[in-house]
Fold this protein.
Amino acid sequence: MDDARESVLVAEPSSEQRGRAWLGPFIERHRFLLAFASLSSLMGISVGVAKVTTSLYAVHLGASPAELGLIASAQSVGVLVMSLPLGFLVEQFGPGRLFVLGTLAAAGLYAAVPFVASAGYLLVCTTLISFFMPFRFVSLSSVFMGQLESIGESKAGWYRGTHMIGMFLLGPALASVVLGVFDFAGTYRAIAAAFLATIVISPIVFGPYARPHGSGRRVTWSDIVGQLRLLARDAELRHVCSIEALAQGTNAYYSFFIVVVAVRVGLDPGEASSLVAANGVTFVLALFTLGSVVRRLGPQRVYRLSFSWVAGALVVLGLADGKASLWLGALCLGLGLGTLQIVNLTRFARCAARLGRGKMAGLNALVAPAGAVLGNLAGGVVGRAFGPQAMFLALVPLFVLASVVLAAGGVLAGGVPARR
C-alpha cells in the first residue's frame, strides 16, 4: 500500500514542475518575440538615457540657447539623411550586418564624448552619432515586419511600444539614477556599454536574416526622389505628413528642452529628467488604451480635440513657474500627442494601402526626424531671443492653424472618412 502511495506521489508532478513544463514551450514558441522585445526595450532605454544626459551635459558645459538648439537638432540630422537610403541598403547588405556596424560606431562615439569638454565638440559627436542610429532601428524594423505574418498582426504595436517604453519611460528615469552614481564621463561609458550589449542579443533576432536578400541593385537618386514625389501628388498624404511633422517637432523640442527649462526654474537634474518620463507615460498610455475611442469618434473629431488639448498643454508649459505646473503640462502634452499619433498611424496605413507600402515606409521614417530638426532649430532661434520656455507658446498658433485648416474641410474626404 505504501509503495502504491509512493508511486502516485512520484507520478504527480509538483506545481513547480508543471510551471517549468509550461514555461519551456512558451519561451520556445515566443522566442523571437521575447528576444525582440528585450532588444527593442534595451535600445530604447540606452537612447533615453543618452538624450537626457546630452541635455544636462550641454547645460553643464554652459551651452548658449543657440548651441542648445543646434545640439538638439543634431540628434536628428543623420536620421533625416539616412532614413530613405537605409531601406535599400538593408536589402543589399542584410539587416544584421548594418545593425552591428551602426551599434559599434555609435558606442565608440558615445564613449568619446567626454574626451573634450566643449559644446562644439558635443555638437560634432551628436551629429556623427545620428548618422548611425538609422542603421539600428531601420534594420530592426525590417526584420519585425518580415516576422509579423508569423507572430500575428495583433503584435504590430510591439515594436513602437517596447521602444517607446524604454526611451520615454525607463530611460529618463534611469538617467537620473546613473547620473547620481557616475559623473558625465562614467554615464557616457555606461551608454556605450548598453549599446554593445544589444549586439549580444541581436543574433536571436537577426539570425534568419543574416544574409542580404535583395537584388543587389545599387541605390539611385531616382529611388529616393520617387518617394518624395508622392507628397506632391497626394493631398491626403501631405496633410498627414504635415501633422506628423508638427507633432514630432513638438515632442522632440519638449524631450530635449524641458530638462533645460526645469533646471532654470529650479528643479534638480533628477526631477528635470522625470518630466520626460511623465510625458512618456501618458503618451504610451494613450497609444495602448485610446485606439477604440479614436475609432468611435473618427479622425475629424479626434484631431479637433487633440489640437485643442496640445495647445492648452503648451500654454501651461510656456507659463509654468514651478514643479506642479510643469508636471501638469507634461502629462497633458503626452496625452494629446499620443492621441494624435494613433490617428496619424491609422491614416499612414490607409495611405500605404492606396500608394504602396514600400514607398510609404521611407516617407514614414523621414517625417519624424524632419519635424524634430525643424522644431529644435526653431526652438534654438526663439530660445536665443526670448528663452527656451517661450518656444512652447510659439508652437500654440501652429496647432490653432492646423485646427483651422481641418475646419476648412476637404482634406480627410479624399482617403479617410470621418467615421468608420
